[in-house]
Amino acid sequence: MITSDQNLITSSLLLILSLHSLFESCDAKCTPSSCGIIPSISSPFRLSSDPKNCGDPRFELACENNVTSISLHSHRYYVKAINYKDEPTIRVVDASINNDNICSFPTYSLSAYNFAFDKSHYLHKLEPISSRYTPINFISCPNPLRNSSLFTDVSSHCASNSSQHRYAYIKVGHMNVSELPYTCGVDLMAMTSWYNFKDLNNVSLSEIHESLLYGFELSTCLWCYSRLSINWAAGFIILLVLVAGLLCAVVSPPIFTVCGFAAVSLLLFLIMIVLFAILDMIIKVDQSFSMLTAQSLLIIDLLGV
């Protein structure tokens, strides 16, 4: 028959083993990985072959044939650079672009809109850096444009990108709905963080190709990640301690200076977290409205206006 002492010993041993396992996993050192042109891959990024405790699985990268890649919205992108200074950023390039073909363009449309409104964005926590990207609009028209000074003519250089009844053009930079020529539509949108355009009103096809090969930068949004890490568990603990402190202050007024002060401090901390969350949401909404113009172009094309 198992006595209470034996139960206590067994429970203590299980607790010690659990704590040992916990501290062992926390103390485990994560050596940076490498793949191809990326010499250092460390937290928050990780390779699929890295130990489970290293990096964030939401920022998992693949290494195939010594080439680093990441999947964004079910599409493959090559990783060209990772910067760990301040807030980590990653620069990626559409894997469908051919380096040696100036007429090779993305096959998948990806713009800031995808990251602002798509639910999968909240899984990756990657977002374009508004000050470091330029949209690239691929449009097609049933007739040649008479005044195409603001657009780069693709049809005359790339026969494969035009058909008998459609003429292809590219507009680099933000474009208003009013700038879209009548009867023309947006076929695809891309982004670039390349900043060496000489004149956005007169962009050459070689500049466009080089900008696409340079890719675009994404921020890991560590503040969003930290806030998600805290979420319900931390919020419940703070609320529990807050209620306990307030009850302590009511039941035992003499120790209000200890429990009450701690409770009020936690309450202020909780209020700050909520305010930061609201501020972050306002910023997101403001960025989303600034990108509605681009999405409106896609809607116009889908409706066939």
| Rg, alpha carbons | 27 Å
Q: What fraction of residues sit in β-strands?
A: 15-25%
Counting DSSP H or I runs of 4 or more residues, the number of helices is: 7
Strand order of the largest sheet: 3-4-5-6-7-13-8
What is the H-and-E element order?
A: HEEEEEEEHHEEEEEHEHHH
* Portion of residues within helices: 25-40%
Tertiary shape: elongated
Residue runs with pLDDT of under 50 for 5 or more positions: 11-27, 225-230, 287-292, 299-303
**Beta-strand segment tally:** 13
Q: Can you summarize this structure?
A:
The protein is α+β, with helices and mostly antiparallel strands. It is 40% helix and 21% strand.
Polypeptide structure, described:
The protein has helices at residues 4-27, 112-117, 121-124, 205-214, 222-251, 256-290, 292-303, and strands spanning 33-35, 38-41, 46-47, 60-64, 67-72, 75-83, 89-94, 127-128, 134-141, 152-153, 167-172, 185-192, 216-219. By secondary structure, the chain is of the alpha+beta class. The chain has 2 domains: 33-220, no CATH class; 229-289. A hairpin with a 2-residue loop joins strand 4 (60-64) and strand 5. The protein starts with a helix and ends with a helix. The model is unreliable at 11-27, 225-230, 287-292 and 299-303 (pLDDT under 50). One of its GO terms (cellular component) is membrane. The chain crosses the membrane at residues 230-251, 258-283. This is LEAF RUST 10 DISEASE-RESISTANCE LOCUS RECEPTOR-LIKE PROTEIN KINASE-like 2.1 isoform X1. It is found in: Membrane.
